[in-house]
Design a protein that fits this description.
Length: about 220
């Protein structure tokens, strides 16, 4: 259930409490989208609704709040960090492993997002993508590990509907420059309308604020 087919960097698993393990085992099978072919999100959620995807949802705070506040939309969270999925599921059960997870508009995929987007997400199907504080891999020799590069920006452009967006935040200046260039070269337009409050409750946004780090925040639009 937890094997990855491609190589990713960073943690796959952290310390998990007994309750987190239980939540994962009990509820992940009903929340996880199996990667068996192109995803039909209308079938997965049993309705026709706008689709949003968060890549690297961490402990799931943003995804959980966003899905709660937008019950008319559907959300897929993609992560490689299994403990993060357990934490999200605990939120969805109100920290009570006997309760069914809510809201019902969240699904989880534990896989490398590059592979999920390239092979399983249909073209022109996504309304919005959130990538909040992707690992910056600051050392030069590690730059090739970064999630966002010109190639992945092109993939995201293909997967979005016309007018769809990618919202990206980072507190790493060098990575911010690469991000901006990658999205521009792929054919995105940079929107002037950005509101940092939208992402105030992610763990890494809080960390960046506590360290008084500058946050670079972008909304790229598919024209
Ligand atoms: C620095 S954390 C940010 C977490 C969260 N977005 C936040 O703002 O608190 C980056 C997250 O991206 C995930 N990640 C890294 N590479 C990924 C990939 N290829 N596919 C999916 N998730 C990935 C990591 O496991 C990690 O949880």
């Amino acid at each position: 259930m937890y094997e990855l087919k491609t190589k990713t960097y960073g943690r796959r698993k952290g310390r998990m409490s007994k309750a987190e393990k239980e939540a994962l085992e009990r509820f992940l099978p009903m929340l996880q989208i199996p990667l068996k072919g192109i995803i039909n999100h209308e079938k997965e959620f049993s309705r026709k609704a706008p689709l949003f995807v968060e890549i690297g949802f961490g402990n799931g705070s943003f995804l959980y709040q966003k899905a709660l506040s937008m019950p008319y939309a559907d959300f897929i969270g993609i992560e490689v960090y299994i403990t993060g999925a357990a934490k999200l599921i605990r939120k969805m059960t109100g920290y009570d492993n006997t309760k069914e997870p809510t809201p019902s508009n969240i699904r989880i995929i534990l896989e490398d997002a590059r592979r999920v987007f390239t092979e399983y997400i249909p073209d022109s199907s996504v309304t919005g993508v959130y990538i909040l504080f992707p690992d910056p891999w600051p050392k030069k020799r590690h730059h090739k590990r970064r999630l966002i590069n010109p190639e992945f920006a092109k993939v995201l452009l293909r997967k979005l509907q016309k007018g769809g967006f990618v919202l990206v935040a980072t507190d790493h200046k060098g990575y911010a420059e690469v991000i901006e260039e990658s999205f521009r070269n792929a054919g995105f337009e940079k929107s002037k309308h950005t509101d940092l409050d939208e992402i105030s409750y992610t763990k890494y946004a809080e960390k960046a604020r506590a360290a008084h780090a500058e946050i670079y925040f972008f909304r790229f639009i598919k024209p």
